[in-house]
Amino acid sequence: MQVDLGNVLDTASVHGVSRDTLERLDSRVADAHNRIERGREANEHGYEALNLPRRTDPDAIRDAVSRFDDPSAVVTVGIGGSALGAATLTESLESDVDAYYLDNVDPEAVERLLDSLDLASTVVNVVSRSGTTAETLANFLVVREAMADAGVDWADRTFVTTGEEGNLRDLAEKHDLPSLPVPDGVPGRFSVLSTVGLAAAAICGHDIDAILDGAAAQESRLSDSLFDSPAYAYGAVSYALAERGMRQNAMMPYAESLETFSEWFAQLWAESLGKDGLGQTPLRALGATDQHSQLQLYRAGPRDKLVTLVRATDRDDVSIPETDLDGLAYLGGSSLGELLDAEFEATEASLAAAGRPNVRIEIDRVDEYGLGELLYAMEAACVIYGELANVDTFVQPAVEWGKRAARGLLGGGDFEEADAVAEKERLVVE
Ligand SMILES: O=P(O)(O)OC[C@H]1O[C@](O)(CO)[C@@H](O)[C@@H]1O
């Protein structure tokens, strides 16, 4: 994996950073790295996430899911970091096992999925660190009833990934369900390289050792200089640009298989860095498609965005047939991969020509190793950004208000937040 910072330098973009600025920033990176290393060595909450490549036990994960012989599908019932990491892995890699995610409570979508499944050959993986998340538990109760209605012994097709306490742990113990622990000290958005993200990947037959090997490769690159660590280079430069007004970061992978990665990145970046009025808003984009929908804004809209362009340098390819159609001969005999690369490089240069900062991230292939590298590097980038911004990267207190309001609206307790919902200001136009 490599990161190319060329187009964020002040020689390439307005609001860019000078090499002198990067050198000064590097001394702050050294301090932040030392703080991170102390946190890792002490297994401190959050920093522990960066120890996962060495701490996660792939054999324990494989053993736990080995009981489910030859499933046709796996449904992960979870939300946020309890679903997005697994989804990123399974939707980036090919498998004979269909992987689905119930990470919302849209009744039509839940019903449509359950109606489509052969529940007798489906594995259900219920994932919740807290074991109390309303959406996850509600969906599990619906799935359990659907399995019972289908004459399927739900306890025989279900395993649970959860903390040591909470409703889900109680349920697992009550019904003697197979379960996997969630790692202590690792917030959900940082847990993809643990049981939380790797169990579904293992059920789908993916090489979870290679995922961890890729992550370990990026772990080995963490250093006291951003010039020696792709992860720290990306995180530090993202921070420096946010300080210069680039308060949005468009994550734009040029690979359909990385579309869900952008969703995972969005939670990681938003929930970690959106604190104390600070943060950098992650935008989800996909190349080359969003050149035809969002590039106009990125290139000619407000000068408030960093664009992160991601691609694999090696991929399977499809030839474009020769053609005698006027004006299209230049495409004939080329390939879709060559066209995708040309679009990537043209978009990169187009942004630079308009003085719009952009970073290039390249992995070799979208395979288990490459995904492990990319995911670990983004987590480490997020951690160093949080240290430089001096925010508490590993908590998410702002999400609790809405949870209390929703629970109160459903009669789950007396919460003043629910009262506030009833007092909404109204100006209705029909
Ligand atoms: O794994 P849990 O405890 O169900 O939480 C799911 C998600 O909800 C959040 O706690 C936010 O509400 C995320 O940080 C987390 O990934």
From TrEMBL:
Enzyme class: isomerase
SUPFAM superfamilies (UniProt xref): SIS domain
Pfam family, one: PGI
Catalytic activity, EC: 5.3.1.9
Biological process per Gene Ontology, one example term: gluconeogenesis
Active site per UniProt: 271, 292, 403
Annotated pathway: Carbohydrate degradation; glycolysis; D-glyceraldehyde 3-phosphate and glycerone phosphate from D-glucose: step 2/4; Carbohydrate biosynthesis; gluconeogenesis
Reaction catalysed by this enzyme: alpha-D-glucose 6-phosphate = beta-D-fructose 6-phosphate
InterPro entries for the chain: G6P_Isomerase (IPR001672), Phosphoglucose_isomerase_CS (IPR018189), SIS_dom (IPR001347), SIS_dom_sf (IPR046348), SIS_PGI_1 (IPR035476), SIS_PGI_2 (IPR035482)
Highest taxon of source: Archaea
Subcellular location: Cytoplasm
Record-level Gene Ontology MF annotations: carbohydrate derivative binding; glucose-6-phosphate isomerase activity; monosaccharide binding
One CC-aspect GO term: cytosol
UniProt keyword terms in alphabetical order: Cytoplasm, Gluconeogenesis, Glycolysis, Isomerase
Domain SIS: 64-211
Keyword Isomerase: yes
HAMAP family: G6P_isomerase
Physiological role: Catalyzes the reversible isomerization of glucose-6-phosphate to fructose-6-phosphate.
Family, as annotated: Belongs to the GPI family.
Protein name: Probable glucose-6-phosphate isomerase
Upper classification of the organism: Archaea, Methanobacteriati, Methanobacteriota, Stenosarchaea group, Halobacteria
Gene of this entry: pgi
